[in-house]
Amino acid sequence: MRDKFRARHYLAMQDYTAEEIRYLVELAADLKRKWTMREPHEYLRGRTYGMIFEKKSTRTRNSFHAAATALGAQSIYLRPDEMQLSRGEPIKDTARIIDRYFDGLYIRTYGQEIVQEFAQYMKNPVINALTALEHPCQGLADLLTIKEKFGEWKGVKVCYAGDVYNVCHSLMIGCGMMGMDIYVAAPEGYEPVPEILACAQQHAAKSGSKVIVTRDFDEALRGADVVYGNTWHSMGENEAQKEKRIQDFMPYQINAQAMAKARKTAVFMHCLPGYRGEDMTDEVIEGPQSVVWDQGENRMHTVKAVMVATAV
Ligand code: CP
């Protein structure tokens, strides 16, 4: 399996098969075990990775730094405003130069076409640290967390309530791949990208699960094992519509009443950052069903798996 990944870009969950995603999650679980047992795992000793973040980040950026250090590699933050990119140097020129210096690039940006262009001009792996279309590193951490909490994926029901966007897209595909039912609860007018919905539903048809987009929050919550929240206004994308979005999404707030409609054994997940009083309440994130800190930690173990698997 390792040979299938070598020098491969990790741009989207939809580019991978269910077997490949399963392999990455299993590798992450093994790396987590080593990290927990303080077993050395410096598989990337002497390598150097570049990082470009055009948007803010706490988890994605810092988990990558920590992951690189634990793997014996260095990660160097390339400030977009200090690079010639900001003065109009073409991506294809930047990409070919970066490729000569670094063993890989981790990039958070706007359109998927930007990471695709970097990938087109780089032989070393490009890893998507979030675009408008997908957040595939978050998707892996979500799968690992669910596996840890339930011991398996098949048969788990996920209720997702939040912006129907990158995180939701990767989660839909991951659930479809692994045989989990996912109900995306959102108001009228907030829909997944059709190609993502189709991809997730194709995987679900194979794995025997369901990918449903519904206006009915109760239907999504009924029997849910995972209640997954996300912001209602995605960073740098639709913040101008913040007030309208808060109004539209308020019936989908994950509060104690909503959690009570899911299974008693349900866990609360959230990619974070979350907005208490909007997409969830303080009592839910701080409550006994919340697994958000484990989920956040898993960002580090899963990105390590991507780095190790894709390294040239
Ligand atoms: N979940 C996530 O991507 O968090 P950051 O924006 O803090 O990286």
UniProtKB/TrEMBL annotation:
What are its E.C. numbers?
2.1.3.3
The protein's UniProt keywords, in alphabetical order, are: Cytoplasm, Transferase
Domain named Aspartate/ornithine carbamoyltransferase Asp/Orn-binding: which ranges? 154-309
Where does the protein end up?
Cytoplasm
Chief subcellular location: cytoplasm
Q: Where is the Aspartate/ornithine carbamoyltransferase carbamoyl-P binding domain?
A: 8-148
Q: Where does carbamoyl phosphate bind?
A: 57-60, 84, 108, 135-138, 271-272, 299
Q: In which pathway does it act?
A: Amino-acid biosynthesis; L-arginine biosynthesis; L-arginine from L-ornithine and carbamoyl phosphate: step 1/3
Under the heading Pfam families, the entry gives: OTCace, OTCace_N
Which positions bind L-ornithine?
166, 234-235
MF terms from GO for this chain are: ornithine carbamoyltransferase activity
Instruction: Name the catalysed reactions.
Output: carbamoyl phosphate + L-ornithine = L-citrulline + phosphate + H(+)
Q: What family is this?
A: Belongs to the aspartate/ornithine carbamoyltransferase superfamily. OTCase family.
What name is this protein filed under?
A: Ornithine carbamoyltransferase
Species this chain originates from: Serratia quinivorans
